[in-house]
Specification:
With about 375 residues, the protein is α+β, with helices and mostly antiparallel strands. It has two domains: about 190 residues, Ribosomal Protein S5, domain 2 (2-Layer Sandwich), CATH 3.30.230.10; about 170 residues, 2-Layer Sandwich (Alpha-Beta Plaits). About 40% of the residues lie in helices and about 25% in strands. The chain has eleven helices and twelve strands. The strands form two sheets. Strands 1, 2, 3, 4, 5, 6, 7 and 12 form an eight-stranded mixed beta sheet that branches. A four-stranded antiparallel beta sheet has the order 9-10-8-11. A hairpin with a 4-residue loop joins strand 9 and strand 10. The chain binds 2-deoxy-2-fluoro-alpha-D-galactopyranose.
Length: about 375
Amino acid sequence: MRVTEAFRAAFGADPRTVWHAPGRVNLIGEHTDYNDGFVLPFAVPWGVTAAVSPRADGVVRLLSLQAEGGPVTRERLDGTRGWERYAAGVLAILGDRVRGADIAVDGDVPQGAGLSSSAALEVSVGSAVNEVYDLGLTPMEIALIGQKAENDFVGMPCGIMDQAASALSKEGHALFLDCRSLASRNVPLDLAADGLEILIIDTRAHHELADGEYAKRRAECESAARTLGVAALRDVTDLADALGRLSGDERKRTMHVVTENHRVEALIGLLRAGKAAEIGALLNASHLSLRDQFEVTVPELDVAAEAAVRGGARGARMTGGGFGGSVIALTATDRVEAVQRSVTAAYAEKGWREPRYLRATPAQGARKLA
Ligand code: GAF
């Protein structure tokens, strides 16, 4: 394994363990996780592999095969920058339970596509450190530590979806997660049996507002919940009444979150009934709600989703936080090329760079490789 060789070359010994954790796409349930709602992501076949050994002297050495230069030695975790923060953040959250570590990571999550390479990094490192320090953490506890590292150490106020998808997914399944109780279920997702697949369209757009706008949406949702006197928007049971008591952006955000939770449940109902071919309308409705009510799409996402459907996809929606990243399109396998042609033509008409197309079936969550 490449990461093991790099570890040996940099640190002069074999790693004690090697773990892989994947990135994710979200089938449906967007911007619901931090509202205590429902999500339905699945792991993608790309991720981060972390080779780790413990150290007794409190020193942390970090090496990424994707970063320029050799290993970085950090005696203080708060001195880290860039990608290092995600790994260092996990160690910082674990505190005294971890005395030090040599860590080498190798990632193949397509960069900038919004497929959660950061969660893959946190969960791969968390899983490996859990083993070498015998911490006895469950996959969900590792996911929560990854989320906390991102919230407190990196400063991104994300919910739990991405880390949970990376830690708990199962091959051939989507992960249904109740983000309040943290109860989860692996839901079979065999689209190929219906002649279908998920085409990922990486728009190659990344809008710099992303982080600030994400935090703003989250604050708006929390403020709407306070106005309504509920703990979280998940608790809204009478949408018409709630909308009557809100105005402006908070009204729109609430409309999205409440209807999106319903769409997650409806989609699971269709999957259970063996009607995967019929989930397309829910994907389209989710996209429109994210565009018009939650206002996290950008022209590249809208054009890709619309052109995918025009080209024959059964449904398409942005996936992840928004402001760039990827669209997923539910497509009959024999129409994938037509869908790609339609999106490529729409992009050419706008004078935009051609998007990148990726095909993914639901992959396994975090697992030990060696
Ligand atoms: C990002 C966040 F990291 C997730 O927690 C989630 O909120 C998502 O955006 C939107 O559904 O990926």
